[in-house]
Amino acid sequence: MTIRLTRRGTLGIAASATLAKPALAAFPTQPVRIVVPWNPGGPADIVIRALVPVMAPTLGQPVVIENRAGANGAVGTQAVARASPDGHTLILANAETHAINPLIYPRLPYDAVADFRPISLIVHAPCVLLVRPGFEVNGVEEFVAKVRGQPGAFTYATWGIGSTSHLAMEALSSQAKLQMLHVPFTGGAPASTALVSGQVDAAFLNAGPAEALARDGKVKILAVGGPQRLPLLPEVPTLAERSLPVNAATWFGLLGPARMPEEAVGRVASAVVEGLKSPAVQELFLAQAVIPDARGPEAMRAFIAEDVASRTDLVRSLDIRLE
């Protein structure tokens, strides 16, 4: 697997590491805690649990993971926003915590920009469009024709209102002029179970787990919701190839509380880069269909701003407001 280190991202990491040199011995002085704001066992958990064993030697301290789920990731994210900014408490953020939540929660208990210091992007995690067993379509074109021909007759599962999976299906429905019934669940696992059991007809789910289900004949994958085909699914076309350029992907990256010292930012960012070089990490990421993309602090900040902008019009058109 090729690790993508963009020029901007590499320069950002290098700059932070340079700033860190005068005080490297000062950080970390205790174990580093990474809050994962979702339940154990999901893609976020898998990504960070693969990475932390190879980050710890670079940091010179243990790295511990704390799962704090709730409110589309807002519970754990708020806890990190309020943590001491010494760099020992970090958040594993994604599109929902820092791009979507600010658009759908009028009273979000944290400011996704002002309360955090970007450290490093880690991976992109594309979703795929899949259908339940027995749903007789072969390809995206047949799916669109069948669903469009029976407005309101079919259902789709997501891992929550305002989630990446929800916005992806709404974007597809808007572009292809489909009418489907949304059935939200509390996570990717129950959404997958509903699809496999035939309770719902379709879903956008993370590509790695979806590939395992498809390999066992439990679902059928129709398309990748990202800009390129995946090595894990080389024969599956992208939606963009079918003239439906849907953003059906999330990302994972590390942020700390605002005012986190630059030496700590640089040290953690360097640990991410070193971790992504590990053959074991690369092998697991390939199996999970996640794409490494290490970008430094300022490149990550710009990336998040672009992600917010790319989702704003869709969220506004859906008029999603959560308390």
TrEMBL record:
<protein>
    <submittedName>
        <fullName>Tripartite tricarboxylate transporter substrate binding protein</fullName>
    </submittedName>
</protein>
<feature type="signal peptide">
    <location>
        <begin position="1"/>
        <end position="25"/>
    </location>
</feature>
<dbReference type="InterPro" id="IPR005064">
    <property type="entry name" value="BUG"/>
</dbReference>
<keyword id="KW-0732">Signal</keyword>
<dbReference type="InterPro" id="IPR042100">
    <property type="entry name" value="Bug_dom1"/>
</dbReference>
<dbReference type="Pfam" id="PF03401">
    <property type="entry name" value="TctC"/>
</dbReference>
<comment type="similarity">
    <text>Belongs to the UPF0065 (bug) family.</text>
</comment>
